Amino acid sequence: MKVVIDTSVIVNLFSGFYPDRTEIAKRVAKLAEKGLAELYAPIFGEIEFISVMRRFLEEEETREAHEIYLSLLSGLVEEELIISRLRELAFKTAHRVPDLYFIAAAEFIGAILITNDRKMADLAKSLGLKAFYLVEESDEFFKALGVSS
After folding, report:
1. 103-124 per-position pLDDT tens digit
2. Is residue 16 in a domain?
3. Which single residue of 84, 106, 108, 133 has CA 20 to 30 Å from 78?
C-alpha cells in the first residue's frame, strides 16, 4: 500500500522525545522494510526532514539520518508533478503550505497520508483523502495495512 509519510512521523525514528510516537515510527519503518508499506514523501519533505534533524544533530549525524530516511522511501514526489494542485489547494484552503505538499503528493500517487499533525489530517480527510492522525489513529492505520495492532 502506498503511504505518504509526513515529516512529523519520520523524525520520531531519531528522537525519544515522544516514546509512544517513536514506537509507532519504528513500526512503520519495519513495515516499509518488509515491503508491507511503500513510503513516499514530496521533495519538500526531504528538505524539511534535513532541516528539522539539523536542529538537533550535528551535520554528519544529520547526513546519516538522511541516508536512513531515503532508504525507507520508495520514492520522492517531484514538485513539478504537484504544483498545479498545490496552487489550487492554496486558493481553496488557505492552509499551511508544508501540509499542502504532503496532501498533494498523496493525492497524486493515490496514497494514504500518515501524520502526527491533527490539522493536516483533518484537512486531508475533508478533501476526501484517506489520512490517519497517528497520535490517535495508529491502530486504524495498521488495520488498514492488514497488520494487527
Report:
1. 999 999 999 999 999 999 999 9
2. yes
3. 133
